[in-house]
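Next comes one such specimen:
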Amino acid sequence: MKLLVTGASGYIGGSVTQKLRDAGHEVLGLVRSEEKARQVEDRGIEPIIGTLDDSAILADAARRADGVINTASSDHRGAVEALVTALERSGKPLIHTSGSSIVCDDALGDSENPAIYNEDTYLEPVPMRQARVAIDRYVREAGISKGIRAVVICPTMVYGTGRGLQSDSDQVPKLTLRSKERGAGLYIGKGINRWSNVYIDDLVDLYLLVLEKAPAASFFFAENGEASLREVAESVSRFLGYGGRMETWDAKDAIAQYGDWARFALASNSRVRAGNARRLGWSPHGPTLAEAVERQL
């Protein structure tokens, strides 16, 4: 197949792209600069230079492809609408990437939320995530009414070394950077808030399985375990050579540095179970988050 991947130089997109190439697929990769274009071209990817705001470029590339995988942004409504319009009545697959902060709370690290979500659980997102949930619903509705095999993959806290140009994820590296500055593994508040997580290679396997087998309008959480942010901080501490030494990071300071991203990506609970993915045949087998962080896998 010829597939368009947005975010082809990123952590998830680059890893997915490499796996697609290994499987014999032809890839068109949306990138934002000439430099990134040269880099992905060296990897055997046909670069498409543009941004998610370039609706005409997106639409043309989508029509050229046999399917589309959107990993560039979970929150860019205009790009998703452009892709859906371009693919309407084609029957082609469209895989959109969401993120499990759609189920997060506002715990500030001080409580463990007992709520665990599956794909059929009703959710009322925090205000910051209402637009993302609306995009997910729009994609799934397109799978019913627009003649597209449109589906959503919703990763949790992704960890491990990626296979793209960007080899690091988001949450763990930021914690690691701040922990280096403090000489201890950091967690916000009490650190008892919990996040589900998934190893990058297992997540990539899910994308290819969904591309092959998923029915239209499907929704897939991607997780293979969970940990408290205090446990994550302990693993970061061991990796950095601090012997498990940890310190609390005041929530106000974290939010002042990273804005609401810290509030909802590091200080919240986001607990899900990937029942649909496992029923589809997904069988994750990568190392745990602690193993991957401490051994840099």
In short: The mean pLDDT is 96. Residues 130-145 form the longest helix (16 residues).
